[in-house]
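quick one, 103 residues, struct below
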Amino acid sequence: MNPDPVRQLDRLIHEKGRLAILSVLAASPELSFTELRNLLEMTDGNLSVHIRTLQEAGYLAVTKSFRKRKPLTTCALTPAGKIAFTQYLDLLEQFVRQTPRPS
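---
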């Protein structure tokens, strides 16, 4: 078995919480902080840290606005985030394909 695909996995994405965030956002054009928190069952603090990490890496765009005079924070994958997530999935798929199946 060739371990190269696993070694090439983006460690930033590989963390469980960030992988979950990117997976959910890959299926939706954008989600609010509250929607992400509820879907992923994360605490506000934990989600905030992961969002900030992904934003600093250029994988997420975060928009702050107001809806009915209440603050609204939304997140969406950036083009770089979409590429990084797709590459991550491709590498993971390569690894899975080369894994021997039990007889």
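The beta strands are 31-32, 60-67, 70-77.
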